[in-house]
Automatic annotation (TrEMBL):
Organism classification: Bacteria, Pseudomonadati, Bacteroidota, Flavobacteriia, Flavobacteriales
Family from the record: Belongs to the citrate synthase family.
Reaction it catalyzes: oxaloacetate + acetyl-CoA + H2O = citrate + CoA + H(+)
Name of the protein in question: Citrate synthase
Family matches, as Pfam families: Citrate_synt (PF00285)
Organism of derivation: Flavobacterium quisquiliarum
Amino acid sequence: AIDINKLRDLTGVITIDPGYKNSGSCTSEITFLDGEEGILRYRGYSIEDLAEKASFLEVSYLLIFGELPTAAQLEDFENNIRKHSLVNEEMKNIIDGFPKTAHPMGVLSALTSALTAFNPKAVNVDNEKEMYEAICKTMAKFLVIATWTYRKSMGYPLNYYDNTKGYVESFMQLMFKLPTGPYAANPVIVNALDKLFILHADHEQNCSTSTVRMVGSSHAGLFASVSAGVSALWGPLHGGANQAVLEMLEEINKDGGDTDKFLAKAKDKNDPFRLMGFGHRVYKNFDPRAKIIKKAATEVLETLGVEDPILDIARKLEKAALEDEYFKSRNLYPNVDFYSGIIYRALGIPTDMFTVMFAIGRLPGWIAQWKEMRENKEPIGRPRQIYTGHPLREFKSNK
Ligand code: ACO
């Protein structure tokens, strides 16, 4: 592996690369991405294999610790997450302070940051046991508060993690269990969600992950770094695109389903409208996750017996865009967000929770990247600039 600290000696010249289109910020052993070929692998395993054969917690363990867990390791991981799943009751006062209409991503970012108030001790990253506990704590509490943002927006009482259930099943219970009566999650839904979380779990140095690494590089704690990642993910050019896709498809549907009209808008350089869910900074080919999700969306809708005109519009739009010279010449293909919203919608998850779903899936990736950054003893992230402002000016008040 390259010693990142040694690279510092070679950086005498400042390069300008807005958006870091060609700048590597680190070396990493976590995720391999080939945008030209449309390949995605976590720790050397293909995304197709993992989505088909592994569970979300297994993949989380793989990303964070580098190898697939044994049965005993997985059980211990799951049990430790359960152990940490209680969230301080005072956190509820913080939630109560938000208006019901607050966007769940804003609430999630604030609550994640607020967890530092109840877990103030800085984790010694050189201590394996402390790191393990901090990781399990984050996996547990983040899931609980993520669902609380939904319960709050609905005005429902808050639920607790079910220690007899798996991670994804418990998520369903946290979200949807009513105060009275038992709750059994539909296995088709649990399976689809497991897959969706796996597909979102890591994607090398994307905007939110780079943010987590950058914030963590100042030795800010895991909760503070993850909270910053949530804010970065929220934007419509990143994770917020899944909400924007569904809103766009709904708008097309309401407008009579004329996909050509919206395609023309997306191509019009005087119109700020972009085809949401299309294009990617790195993929210049099919996003391999989009292929898996498209198939899963069809399966989920069929199994649940849901007929959704939005799926037909999405298919029509995708086909038209893929045949269009504008999209072809710019290598614009559907990305992970194009079909995920259709599944979430079929599962009864409201649109403004879509990006929270993405955040739950991305959490193990953020943790793995934060851990790797600290273990590699990376220097504080501090880009340079080329100053283009005024030269020295004499102070004369404008008052
Ligand atoms: N619709 C219409 N035109 C597009 C789109 C789109 N969705 N995406 C890119 N283009 C065009 C641009 O206008 C530009 O055209 P030009 O060369 O004529 O100026 C060209 O394609 C290149 O686009 P850039 O914006 O330079 O590409 P960049 O790598 O900076 O942006 C991004 C990538 C942000 C994903 C962009 O494709 C986009 O805005 N897509 C829609 C939002 C979206 O789906 N985001 C989710 C990304 S995946 C994720 O975060 C999980």
